[in-house]
C-alpha cells in the first residue's frame, strides 16, 4: 500500500495547502480591505488639497 515516505509527503502537502488556504483567507479578510480603504482615503485627501490650491489661486 503506502510506504512511510509517501505518507510523509502527503502530510507535507496537506500542511502546505492548509497554510496557503489560511494565508489567502487572512489576506482577503484583513489586509486587502485595509489597503483599498487606505488608497481611497489618500485619493480623497489629494482631491481636497487640489481643490484648496485651486481656490487659493483664483483669489
Kindly describe this structure:
- By secondary structure, the protein is mainly alpha-helical.
- The chain has a domain of 37 residues.
- The chain is 93% helix and 0% strand.
- It has one helix and no strands.
Give the secondary structure arrangement, pairings included.
Blueprint (H helix, E strand, L loop, with lengths): L3 H55 L1
Short description:
93% of the residues lie in helices and 0% in strands. It contains one helix and no strands.
Offer a few descriptive terms.
59 residues, mainly alpha, 1 helix, 0% strand
Bulk shape: rod-shaped
Q: Stretches where pLDDT falls below 50 for ≥5 residues?
A: none
Q: Report the mean per-residue pLDDT as an integer.
A: 92
Task: Describe the largest sheet.
Answer: none
What is the structural class? mainly alpha
| Helicity, as a percent range | over 70%
- Distance N terminus to C terminus? 85 Å
Run of helices and strands: H
Strand content: under 5%
How many beta strands in the DSSP annotation? 0
Amino acid at each position: 500500500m503506502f510506504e512511510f515516505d509517501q505518507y510523509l509527503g502527503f502530510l507535507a502537502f496537506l500542511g502546505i495547502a492548509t497554510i496557503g488556504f489560511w494565508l489567502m483567507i487572512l489576506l482577503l479578510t484583513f489586509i486587502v480591505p485595509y489597503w483599498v480603504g487606505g488608497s481611497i482615503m489618500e485619493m480623497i485627501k489629494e482631491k481636497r488639497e487640489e481643490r484648496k490650491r485651486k481656490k487659493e489661486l483664483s483669489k
